[in-house]
């Protein structure tokens, strides 16, 4: 009989309270130095460095990156574009995904279940640029059956994956 209290994700079971504290601190400020991170979670710098390396190598931490404000780049219009494919054969889905990665101004791509197949978060400089993105990069793909564009009025951060430090 399976253990009902066993974690569903084996990787999550390997994270202890120090790892979770480190992740919460880095989620709040990914630019923390090793020394500052070690001090905030109450461990030695060498221990912190080793734990951080382990978190990266195990894939718990995927990457570090800057979050750039699109409007600072002159991209004042954000939108979510839903895409429905005509077919869901593996080859067509892979071909479409490959094409999506090369479309300029696509911030994030979500492959989803439900009525739509993809959600694209895009940032562009104008309504005309948004129209051109849809017409020149999405509607021309032979596998695309339908698109719908929704303007983003505001992007609001959620609570996140970890409690705030």
Structure description:
Helix 2 packs across helix 3 (34-41) and helix 3 (34-41) crosses helix 4. The protein has two domains: 10-57, Arc Repressor Mutant, subunit A (Orthogonal Bundle); 70-152, Alpha-Beta Plaits (2-Layer Sandwich). The two termini are 38 Å apart. With 165 residues, it is of the alpha+beta class. The protein is built from six helices and four strands; from the N terminus they run H-H-H-H-E-H-E-E-H-E.
In total, the number of strands is 4
Q: In what order do the strands lie side by side in the largest sheet?
A: 2-3-1-4
CATH architecture of the largest domain: 2-Layer Sandwich
Q: Indicate the percent of residues in helices.
A: 25-40%
Query: How many strands, what sense, and barrel or not for the largest sheet?
Result: 4 strands, antiparallel
CATH topological fold name of the largest domain: Alpha-Beta Plaits
Instruction: Report mean pLDDT, rounded to a whole number.
Output: 91
Spans of 5+ residues with little confidence (pLDDT < 50)?
1-7
Question: Any idea how many domains?
Answer: 2
Q: Shape, please?
A: elongated
Q: What is the radius of gyration?
A: 21 Å
Outline the secondary-structure elements.
Elements: H1 10-13, H2 17-28, H3 34-41, H4 45-57, E1 77-85, H5 90-100, E2 106-111, E3 118-124, H6 127-138, E4 144-152
Antiparallel strand pairs: 1-3, 1-4, 2-3
């Amino acid at each position: 009989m399976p253990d009902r209290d066993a974690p569903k994700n084996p990787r999550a079971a390997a994270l202890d309270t120090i790892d979770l504290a480190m992740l919460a601190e880095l989620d709040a400020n990914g630019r923390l130095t090793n020394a500052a991170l070690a001090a905030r979670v109450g461990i030695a710098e060498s221990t912190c460095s080793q734990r951080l390396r382990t978190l990266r190598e195990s894939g718990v931490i995927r990457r570090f990156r800057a979050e750039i404000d699109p409007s600072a780049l002159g991209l004042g219009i954000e939108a979510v574009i839903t895409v429905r494919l005509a077919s869901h054969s593996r080859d067509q889905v892979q071909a479409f995904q490959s094409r999506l990665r090369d479309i300029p101004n696509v911030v994030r791509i979500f492959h989803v279940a439900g009525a739509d197949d993809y959600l694209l978060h895009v940032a562009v400089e104008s309504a005309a640029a948004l129209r051109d993105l849809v017409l020149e990069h999405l509607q021309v793909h032979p596998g695309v059956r339908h698109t719908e564009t929704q303007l983003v009025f505001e992007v609001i951060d959620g609570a996140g994956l970890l409690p705030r430090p």
